């Protein structure tokens, strides 16, 4: 029910009691001027027990607020804009990388990492065409009836 406002190192607490005769107690000892608002200047981020009372009503609050001197406040629209811009830039970079790398798929790489590791596998020789098979030893009778022509 308390309203707490933090700006830099200043913390302002508003008591839920509507009267201006509200008294404040900070960690059990009376402090501050009477009124509906209590301001802590140069708060050191240490936890504090606060009590505001008026007449027979009393409200207690445990304040554990972290403050800093050089913090910047951002509204929701600024945070949403930053996130959206970051996503659009990332998407643009991904599209550029995709289109520039698409053309390089058919090219072979000359980098040393593209070589095969381990034993090199040798391909068997191609199957010879039987029409142009060379004459081997022991098969001369097969071609004996062919006559040699002189040019």
UniProtKB/TrEMBL annotation:
Membrane topology according to the record: Single-pass type I membrane protein
Positions of region (Disordered): 23-44, 104-139
Primary site of residence: membrane
Cellular compartment(s): Cell membrane
TM helices/strands, residue ranges: 77-100
Lineage start: Eukaryota, Metazoa, Chordata, Craniata, Vertebrata
Keywords from the named record: Cell membrane, Immunity, Immunoglobulin domain, Membrane, Receptor, Signal, Transmembrane, Transmembrane helix
Family matches, as Pfam families: Ig_5
Single biological process term from Gene Ontology: cell surface receptor signaling pathway
A GO MF label: transmembrane signaling receptor activity
Name this protein carries in UniProt: T-cell surface glycoprotein CD3 epsilon chain
Top-level taxonomic group: Eukaryota
InterPro entries, per database record: CD3_esu/gsu/dsu, Ig-like_fold, Phos_immunorcpt_sig_ITAM
Any one Gene Ontology cellular component term annotated for this protein: external side of plasma membrane
